[in-house]
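Supplementary Methods S3. Complex input for the NAI-bound model.
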Amino acid sequence: MDGLAGLARGSVVAVIGSGAMGAGIAQIAAASGHEVRLFDTREGAAATAVLEIGKVYGKLVEKGRMSELEASLARERLKTVASLGEVAGAAIVIEAIVENLEAKRKLFAELEGIVDERCILATNTSSISVTAIAAPLKHPERLVGMHFFNPVPLMALVEVISGLATDESLANTVFATAQAWGKEPVHAKSTPGFIVNRVARPYYAEALRLLQEGASDAATLDAVMREGGGFRMGPFELMDLIGHDVNFSVTQSVHAAYYGDGRFTPSVVQQELVNAGFLGRKTGRGFYRYGEGAAKPVVQAESAQPRPNTVAISIPREVKTSILTPMEARLAAAGFSVAHREPLHGVEKNEAPALHCNGAAIYLTDGRSATERAAANGHANTVVYDLLFDHAKATRIALARADQCSIDAWQAAVGLFQAAGFEVTRFDDVPGMAVMRTVAMLANEAADAVNQGVCSARAVDIAMQKGVNYPRGPLAWADAIGLHHVVTVLANLGATYGEDRYRVSPLLRRKLAANPAEPRFHA
Ligand code: NAI
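Predicted complex, serialized as structure tokens:
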């Protein structure tokens, strides 16, 4: 969409609702050269917001991010209005009032009688159908979703949402306008959760299941997701920050909107937190405790084991690119000369590439538990490890041990990864572990969103990086893991749990069929 024209600089942007979102939108619109008119029904709210925005500009000047002149011009361009009638000359009206369909419909109906016919009507709704908001309007084609993320000045993503009636040229104008405001917009169809609030569901859901199944405790799972998975915040600390009431209600609404699709089933663990009023940071307690005297959470790590002398790798003949290659590089960097040997017996010939160390066979998780894999292979000493985002930089790795695995073989595996510079965390033997299971499910949801025409593969990857700070877009990440492996993980989870939740997206299967040698989402 590059190169399309956005709204002219200097044109009037009206913002309705001066809460957290409206104030942020007004701030960036005025800083980007627009005349801004801010309206709020609550007495004095808009004026307070304008004062606060003025202070923010002052801080940006101190930090050298804005000149004195730019700040004073932006302040001059930003004005409150006392009645809705005063937004008559606006080129766009952006609504950021309460999240309520009737309130929004009422506002837009009123606005239709005020603004001229070329004015774009935009809603910042995060969960209501844009189609439904537009439906009663005389001109539903001029209503479009412009979904900013909180805090608006810091989060780059804007989801530009088209309802069924939305005029695509207006969506393009809004897209280009967001770009001109320094944002990273993506187009999406009006569907429950749009892109981010839908595709992010597994980030919380899989973590809640891992906790429920006793894989580990919240602090340890968070540490693995951060230090191994490369996520900025672990799922439990993030849910505590968002607030369990808010996070749970988004999950419930997406679940209900998709008519109870098992993919989105809410967690009884989170329901109990809400029942207890343990809503997270804001109430001083969620998964963690906050405030003075709160104990620092302890992250589980294995005690130091001796460095093994040798490690070998076996790669079945038909495997062309080994998913163990980056791990091999990490081990080599730690001074191990990793011998390549022929797969010895039937099992090794059929299985995925494995590291061999003092009798232990160590695999990247494929969605089966280590115990199940050990039984299938007839090799008791089986250990699996979790996916890493960046093998060179990861500081922590999670391992799981088959119930049949000997203590010697387990300790050899722990010693190997410790010698390679990892803190080693042991998970109880849950299928798919944490990072792998989460990323596979994020990619699956992203693939479904693309398959259902909600957005493009490029858009979903941008959205998850810019809207929730994932270290990599889920589809690019699936490409990096290998789509065959991602599908194997999902299929194994599906077989283990017998739940529709883990069904593989048709688009993933289609990619494998179209290009079995090198299936990819991105060229
Ligand atoms: P808020 O509660 O901080 O602010 C809403 C403001 O709108 C209040 O100042 C209220 O007085 C005013 N208001 C209510 N009805 C009005 C009306 N009919 N006319 C004029 N002003 C009215 O809410 P917040 O968080 O700023 O959210 C606003 C909208 O943005 C909601 O639709 C929300 O779903 C959406 N949103 C919120 C995000 C968030 O993280 N808070 C993220 C993305 C979207």
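The first strand starts at residue 12 and ends at 16. The pocket of NAI is lined by residues 16-22, 39-42, 45, 96-99, 103, 107, 124-126, 148-150 (CB under 6 Å).
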